[in-house]
């Protein structure tokens, strides 16, 4: 599988922690907060690492129904990719945290806290998903002082291109800034 340099450019979105009210431990916090964020915005959310378990007989019926819906959706949108996604999930261990769908848009979302980096398996899996034609994004929960809101990062070279910065202060105090 030959990957182009553009497959390594991943969209990063930064959400300030002040939007959320973190309670409890930080372990799994990014996943909890971002899942709630996407569900509130009307997206249907599936766990990405669960695809290879769908054939198991010991899962709850409602979970099986939910993932069967994802399977049908993927087979309609992208025929022959379901088995490949299950392989990525079972063998490569770099599958993003969530698969989200809303109004014909399907995305793969990786969740990170501000200090966390992509793992080696994730750096291999995300470009492969982009090569298959999927939208792949990394969402980071960051401190309030982080001004970047959206960037493109080449995970091969580490090059970062800032696409959007915080505009709130400029809107509030246009004459001083």
- The sequence of SSEs as H and E is EHEHHEEHEEEH
The CATH architecture category of the domain at 5-46 and 97-172 equals 3-Layer(aba) Sandwich
Number of helices: 5
Number of strands: 7
Strand content: 25-35%
Shape: globular
The CATH class name of the domain at 5-46 and 97-172 reads Alpha Beta
Q: Give the helix level as a range of percent.
A: 25-40%
Terminal CA distance: 49 Å
Per CATH, what is the topology of the domain at 5-46 and 97-172? Answer: Trna Endonuclease, Chain: A, domain 1
**Which regions are unreliable across 5 or more consecutive residues at pLDDT < 50?**
none
Structural account:
By secondary structure, the chain is of the alpha/beta class. The protein has a domain at 5-46 and 97-172: Trna Endonuclease, Chain: A, domain 1 (3-Layer(aba) Sandwich), CATH 3.40.1350. The chain has helices at 29-40, 61-77, 81-92, 120-131, 168-172, and strands spanning 9-16, 44-47, 98-102, 105-113, 135-142, 148-154, 160-165. The chain has a seven-stranded mixed beta sheet with strand order 2-3-4-5-1-6-7, with helices on both faces. A hairpin with a 5-residue loop joins strand 6 (148-154) and strand 7. The longest helix has 17 residues, at 61-77. The mean pLDDT is 83.
């Amino acid at each position: 599988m030959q990957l182009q340099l553009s497959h390594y450019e991943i969209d990063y979105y930064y959400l300030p922690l002040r939007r959320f009210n973190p309670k409890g431990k930080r372990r799994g916090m990014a996943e909890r907060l971002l899942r709630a964020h996407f569900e509130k915005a009307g997206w249907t959310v599936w766990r990405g690492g669960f695809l290879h378990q769908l054939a198991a007989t010991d899962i709850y019926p409602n979970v099986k129904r939910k993932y069967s819906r994802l399977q049908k959706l993927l087979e309609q949108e992208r025929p022959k990719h379901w088995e490949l996604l299950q392989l990525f999930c079972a063998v490569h261990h770099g599958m993003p945290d969530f698969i989200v769908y809303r109004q014909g848009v399907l995305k793969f979302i990786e969740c990170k806290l501000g200090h966390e980096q992509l793992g080696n398996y994730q750096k291999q899996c995300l470009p492969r998903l982009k090569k298959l034609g999927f939208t792949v994004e990394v969402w980071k929960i960051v401190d309030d002082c982080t001004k970047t809101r959206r960037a493109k990062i080449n995970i091969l070279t580490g090059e970062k291109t800032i696409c959007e910065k915080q505009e709130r202060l400029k809107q509030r105090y246009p004459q001083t800034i």
